[in-house]
Each structure stands twice: as structure tokens, then as C-alpha cells.
Amino acid sequence: FSGILSKITFDYRKTNPDIELHLHELDITQQVDDVFNGRIDVGFIRPPVRQWPDGITSLTLSREPIIIALPKGHPLSRRRVVPLAALKNESFITTYFEEGIGFHAQVTAMCRAADLTPRITQRGRQFAAITSLVGAGLGVAFAPDTLRNLRVPNVVYRPLEGAKGTTDLALIYRKFEQAPAVVSFIAKAKQFTRLR
Which of 77, 106, 48, 84 is closest to 163 using CA atoms? Predict the structure, then answer.
């Protein structure tokens, strides 16, 4: 939702019109395995990963705060900033996850530091689906700050007070990649690297 994936891809295609790109939606574990085994050339993930296979590396493209998505009209939506402690009795909507990896691991660390145990009542595959469930009034959801760019009816986004949670977006690739098209893509991604 930050647009960095579309910006990198658009700029790469503009400067490399003869290279054909195929994008696939895969979970983190599958992406790491597929990059390692050469089934895909690069992947976009939200770290951390439990264990990096030898020969795989990552480039952090962006870092952003974790925020809360609330149904419009929710009592906490009237606040400019929401304390984590105020969320203790809420129903949470989250992605399907593997323990210890990705966005879920970042949220878990943030909640653990604040002594908050979210009560998960719904799950969705993607942030867009989760936000739609928030808009339907089924709960609240932690989200990357750039999700604010996604306008969903009946959803408001608020920063979290007292939370130091951030989430990264990273490009993963083989350390010793030599294919010119892939090396060029990695170089293009490095041009867009920004830490928020």
C-alpha cells in the first residue's frame, strides 16, 4: 500500500521493456524457499524469518509504524492516538500466520512489551480483506501505517500510544545472483530504498 512494489516494478519495466515479469502471491516461507531453490528470482516479504537459508539475503525497502484500524464509530475512533492498553478487551482480526515470522512476529513483540494478549476472533488472507472486516464492525486490526492509503468505508486508522512497534518491507534474493535481469532488478530496488 506504500506503492514501493508498484514503483520499483513500473520503473524496472520502463528501463527493461524486453524483460517479462511474472508476479505471484506467496506466503513468506514459500517465497524464501522458492528464491533459495531458484523457482523465483526475488520476493517481497515482511521480516522476520525464522532462519535464512545460506545464500539468501534481504534488503530493507521501508520501515513504518504499526497502527490500529478501527470501525468508524468505535469509541476509540474518537481518539487521535490509541493506547495499547485500551485494546485489551477488543476482538482482533489478523492475517493467517506462522508463529515467529512476518508481520505477526512484529505485532507479537510489540504486544508482549505492553503486556497485551490480543483476542483473535477473525482471520483474513490479506490486509485489504482484514480492513473490510474491520469496516463491517467485526473487530479491530493492527496494520502497517501505509494501509492508511487504502480507503475502506467505515474504517478509521489511528497511531498507537506507547507502542514502539514497526514493520519492515524487504526484498529477498540470492546473495550471489548473476543473471543480468535479476541483478538489474535488485539495483532498481536499491534506488527506492527508504527507511521511514
Answer: 84
Provide the pLDDT for residue 194.
Answer: 53
Q: Cell match 486508522: residue? A: 157
152-156 own/partner pairs: CB under 8 Å, 24+ apart: 152/128, 153/72, 154/71, 154/72, 154/73, 155/69, 155/70, 155/71, 155/72, 155/131, 156/69, 156/70, 156/71, 156/72, 156/74, 156/77
**Share of residues in the chain with pLDDT > 70 (%):** 97
Long-range contacts of 135-139 (CB under 8 A, 24+ apart): 135/71, 135/72, 136/71, 137/71, 138/91, 138/93, 139/90, 139/91, 139/92, 139/93
At 23-75, the pLDDT tens digits run 998 989 999 999 999 999 999 999 988 888 999 999 999 999 999 999 999 99
